[in-house]
Amino acid sequence: MSSRSANRQVVAFDKQVIHAGNKGLDINHEEVAVKVDALMASMNLEQKINELHGLQQTPIEGLYYAGGDPDLGIPPFKMVDGPRGARAGTATAFPVAIGRAATFDVELERRVGLAMGLEVAAKGGNVILAPTINLLRHPGWGRAQETYSEDPFHMGAMSVAFISGAQNYVLTSPKHFALNNLEITRFELSANIDARTLHEVYLPHFKRSVQEAAAGSIMSAYNKMNGVYCGEQPILLTEILRDDWGFKGFVESDWFLGTRSTAPAINSGMDIEMPAAFRYSGENIQAALESGELNDETLHRNARRSVYQKVAWKLAEMEVPDESVVECEAHISLAREVAEKSFVLLKNDNVLPLKDESGLKIAIVGDLADTINLGDKGSSFVTSSEVSTPLDGLRSFVKNASVEYFKSDENLESLGQFDVSIVVAGLTYVEEGEFIPTQQQESEGGDLARGGDREDLALPEHQLSLIDRAARSSNKTIVLLEGGSAIQVTDWLESVDALLMVWYPGREGGSAIANVLFGHVSPSGKLSVSFPKAMNQLMDWDVNALDVDHDLLHGYRYLDFHDHIPEFPFGFGLSYTSFVVGELNVARNAIGFDVIVSVTNTGDRQGAEIVQLYVECTEAKMFRVPRELKGFGRVTLDPGETIDLLMELNDTDLCYYNMDKSDWQLEACRYELKVGTSSRNLPLASSWLFDGKQWQAA
Ligand code: BGC
To answer: How far apart are CA 55 and CA 493, in angstroms?
Structure first.
């Protein structure tokens, strides 16, 4: 880190900090290989087969067991869901990943990974079935809340941070490999894609998770890629993951329907069938060996990958942390901090922040104000021992103002007697989430649930009518929007004074909401999913599709290409203070560029700004999307303070995937480096020409 001017600090993202303590990066592979080979030599066929599957269909206290042999001293894997906390008894429910992503704060996401990894370990687990890193191709995807982003660069940074944090304690399992981005038809659909789109858009974040963060395992996807189930797709599981990326961990299938065959799956590189042996039963494997469809070496290879990680991670010696770490004070305050930083202020016509003054009359409106709404009730569901709802948060914050609660079905005409109405609206597990058929929920004694993909992005009728009725009667209307993805707001945005996206904010959501509404913290989140004005601004979307063609355009890439101006672009979010991104200095180094930009807080309170770097390739021969995110940084500034932010851009990030050569290539063309505060506000630019050999500022 160098200082450009005597009194101005240059801040940069420090990779060392992110990777500290990640056990996956500490493995001595030569030593492990020797030990594992000795151990494998002592194993008979039955013992090897036992390493290839889970042990029971339903988890035991949240743990899914796989393999393990006490006689050989080999422990089982004990896998625990999932992306917003430990799904085992009660645990800290963090804000969902799409909310955490809005912080653009990799150091914070590392701390979330640390906390979740520790809680999973304290529950007795040694593998966390997270993070979900399927690219948000369309915001209607039911599991959007589980993932981070519609952008692969942003997704990769968040994923690497989470993995490195969690792998201080347990192995991670980035999922679902790959192209799992439609829910209802996930068991059958084929994602059709060419190699360029696959490598440039849908896989870079998986690659970084493997290569930069040494993810211990990978979960395959249910769907097919180009007609072949991902659980038996050799292009993904062997050619790319092993041969190209050098992955050393194991692959487990997604549950029940993720392994579709015996020999083809094993041969393709599907190591462990979860949650139990259906296709990988001793009987099926014996038959496959006898028929010659499977050979001993391949079976040995897959079993070795399971044993390898158990030895490399020293699972037999792993200590179980005391349960008191679960929902401990530090994790609770982390959940609150993340929630505060995840909220995205989308509109504010001089109404926020509120002042807690006596005489101020606040109405809080809507069933969701008083509902525990942590996200879907699929595999990522987490139960916390206590949850702060928006109503709880407001009531415990306010000392001087008065707060009155109105349910959705109450007479809202009297809202005119209040200074301000806070309407809590949005979605729940009913409208979006992992698809849980009603029957299955009932048989498990749960609520009647649905989830699945959303056909359109509008709020349900009853929520629209709530906002409409409240806005008509209120003097000032603030809408808090809960949900796990983009929501269409254009039809009613004019009628409200402020809009704050709070996602599914986790167990401390309510207190975080109060802290932000009253200005203890200025909102600083930015959208990692574009909010279109209407569905017709996006690509065609069919939630029942069985064949889906993927190309280079989706999200902001699609919107920019078609010149559709969304309601709120990718990377957008307001603050209570104001910022100016000033000078831009770009210099070549041996492998890319140092991009330094000055950021000043020009307002009167502390706040954080997320600066973004996009690259546009012009005069290119290849088709290139209009612009792509290639760097970002988050800075917290006091009023009047200026900081120089350094973003490093590597030439490798500018390459496209050349399908003829099956390799990355840096095209000779003009590269415009654009810097600003959202994908559609990029006032600063630096232009560079690459002639195939040399770079020149132009
Ligand atoms: C989900 C996975 C999850 C697994 C175990 C599957 O249905 O797709 O994400 O980890 O169940 O609960």
So the answer is: 52
CA of 448 from ligand 1 middle (Å) equals: 19
CB 672 within 8 A of CB 618: yes
Q: Which atom of ligand 1 is nearest to the CA of 64?
A: 5
pLDDT at 6: 46
CA distance 540 to 554: 10
**pLDDT score at 446:** 65
Going from the Cα of 549 to the center of ligand 1, the distance in angstroms, rounded, reads 24
Strand-pairing partners, residue 10, are 644
Ligand 1 contacts (CB < 6 A) are 81-82, 129, 175, 254-255, 379
d(CA 308, CA 302): 10
Q: Is 608 exposed, middle or buried (0-12, 13-18, 19+ CB in 10 A)?
A: buried
The per-residue pLDDT for 445 is 63
Q: Is 225 helix (H, G, I), strand (E, B) or coil?
A: strand
Among 637, 698, 623, 682, which residue's Cα sits nearest to residue 194?
Answer: 623
| Rg (the chain; Cα; Å) | 25
Output the residue whose Cα is nearest ligand 1's atom 12.
379
Residue located nearest, by CA, to atom 3 of ligand 1: 379
Q: How far apart are CA 339 and CA 381, in angstroms?
A: 17
Q: Which helix (H) or strand (E) holds 296?
A: helix 296-312
Mean pLDDT, residues 83-96: 98
Which sign, positive or negative, has the C-alpha torsion 39, 45, 47, 49? positive
- C-alpha to C-alpha distance for 311 and 44, rounded to whole angstroms: 18
φ and ψ of 368, to 5 deg: -65, -20
Q: Measured between alpha carbons, how far is 286 from 291 in angstroms, rounded to an integer?
A: 9
Contact call for residues 529 and 567 (beta carbons, < 8 A): no
506 close to 335: Cβ distance less than 8 angstroms = yes
Q: How far is the CA of 370 from the centre of ligand 1 (A)?
A: 29
The token pair at 198 is 């696959």
Q: Can you give the pLDDT at residue 2?
A: 39
Query: Which distant-in-sequence residues (6+ apart) come within 8 Å of 520 by Cβ?
Result: none
Find the mean pLDDT for residues 23-36.
Answer: 98
CA of 184 to the centre of ligand 1 (A): 14
Half-sphere exposure of 506 (CA within 13 A, CB side): 32
Q: Which of 151, 254, 392, 453 is the catalytic position?
A: 254
The rounded distance, in Å, linking the Cα atoms of 56 and 40 is 24
pLDDT tens, position by position, 47-74: 999 999 999 999 999 999 999 999 999 9
Nearest alpha-carbon partner for 646 in 7, 8, 110: 8
Q: How much is the pLDDT for 448?
A: 63
532 touches 568 (CB < 8 A):
no
pLDDT range class, residue 112, cuts 50, 70, 90:
very high
Separation between Cα atoms, residue 314 and residue 43, nearest integer Å: 19
Identify whether the C-beta of residue 219 lies closer than 8 Å to the C-beta of residue 174.
Answer: yes
Name the pLDDT band for 7 (thresholds 50, 70, 90). Answer: low
Q: Which residue's alpha carbon is nearest to atom 8 within ligand 1? A: 254
Residue nearest to atom 4 of ligand 1 (CA): 255
563 classed as catalytic: no
Q: Which atom of ligand 1 is nearest to the CA of 379?
A: 12
Say what percent of the chain tops pLDDT 90: 95
Vertex 615: Cα angle to 613 and 618 (nearest 5) = 155
CB atoms within 10 A of CB 430: 15
The residues with which 251 forms a beta bridge, in sequence order, are 218
Rounded to 5°, the CA angle 38-42-47 comes to 120
